[in-house]
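$ ./design --mode recover --in tokens.txt
reading tokens...
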């Protein structure tokens, strides 16, 4: 690939020889050939270029490149965004068999689109639909009447439940579970959980006896261009559907409960847990290990900091942190005053001692 072509694809500024041919993109410290493209978009990496075999590089706009080191380089304004373009240009192919592997089982009434690739030991149940160009890797299960749109990629071990609807250009990583039944149970009489939520009490008298299953009649509906991480679980709805909006990205080890609705262009990071019937707006960021209580509503463009516990509704545009999650400025205030508690207690103790001394002197007086 010519350096000039890379500059055009990234919308960057070419400096020097655009005819330099590169075959792979690497960290500057891992360059072994003059055909390696050094990714030196952090200014701290300029030193690693000095004396390396690299003849081409991607650098941040304004960076000082070692003189005489490179034959050509591309300057980019936004390195993180440029990285998306670079990895797209040099993406490695998926090793999936052409057509349907002999060990795969596809039921006769399933609908398989053009150019679909199905790996070994994968099962596609009756009535399922797999769109054009979609790849199902090994040991994938597609349940009855499930639908997967065109140009999707389902990695090994993923489980797609019955009646699940998945849009186009969706990536599902290893061992994800889409469409398991929701965690929903009820007791014939008022249970301990319901009593505990009913008011400010320290003890419960109700008993969780005869836990009765509430079946999941709904499904999961996933929009276009969604990505779902490894070992993530998305439960189907009780009656209505659990929904994931277009372009939302979900990390590994995320738990999304039944009836949850997530908007478009959200980022849900690793180990997030979202309880049933929560509603998440569009362009929301839930950082790692955030917990969201059931029936909570989070507005658009909210950012929730890592390990926060969301137990109340959050308005649009809010930055929330802490447990329970509150506005960032409020959390900082709470933290500041908490840090001062020891000195405050010491001061109160000193004041009490002085007051006792004064009162004792007055009595003697």
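writing sequence...
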């Amino acid at each position: 690939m010519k350096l000039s072509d890379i500059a055009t694809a990234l919308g960057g500024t070419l400096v020097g020889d655009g005819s330099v041919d590169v075959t792979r993109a690497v960290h500057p410290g891992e360059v072994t050939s003059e055909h390696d493209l050094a990714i030196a978009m952090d200014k701290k990496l300029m030193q690693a270029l000095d004396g390396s075999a690299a003849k081409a590089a991607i650098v941040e706009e304004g960076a000082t490149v070692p003189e005489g080191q490179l034959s050509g380089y591309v300057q980019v304004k936004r390195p993180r965004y440029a990285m998306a373009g670079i990895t797209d240009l040099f993406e490695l192919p998926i090793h999936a068999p052409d057509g349907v592997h002999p060990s795969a089982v596809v039921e006769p009434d399933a609908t398989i689109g053009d150019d679909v690739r199905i790996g070994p030991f994968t099962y596609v149940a009756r009535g399922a639909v797999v769109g054009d160009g979609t790849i199902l890797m090994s040991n994938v299960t597609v349940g009855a009447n499930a639908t997967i749109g065109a140009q999707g990629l389902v990695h090994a071990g993923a489980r797609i439940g019955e009646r699940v609807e998945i849009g186009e250009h969706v990536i599902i990583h290893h061992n994800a579970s889409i469409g398991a039944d929701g965690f929903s149970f009820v007791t014939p009489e008022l249970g301990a959980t319901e009593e505990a939520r009913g008011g400010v009490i320290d003890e419960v008298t109700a008993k969780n006896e005869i836990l009765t299953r509430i079946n999941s009649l709904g499904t999961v509906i996933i929009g276009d261009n969604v990505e779902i991480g490894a070992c993530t679980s998305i439960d189907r709805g009780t009656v209505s559907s659990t929904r994931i909006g277009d372009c939302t990205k979900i990390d590994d080890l995320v738990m999304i409960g039944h009836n949850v609705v997530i908007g478009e262009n959200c980022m849900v990071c690793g180990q997030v847990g979202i309880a049933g019937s929560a509603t998440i707006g569009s362009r929301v960021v839930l950082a790692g290990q955030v917990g969201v209580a059931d029936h909570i509503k989070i507005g658009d463009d909210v950012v929730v900091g890592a390990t926060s516990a969301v137990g109340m509704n959050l308005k649009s545009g809010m930055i929330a942190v802490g447990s329970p999650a509150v506005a960032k400025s409020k959390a900082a205030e709470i933290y500041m005053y908490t840090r001062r508690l020891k000195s405050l207690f010491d001061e109160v103790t000193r004041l009490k001692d002085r007051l006792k001394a004064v009162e004792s002197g007055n009595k003697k007086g």
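exit 0
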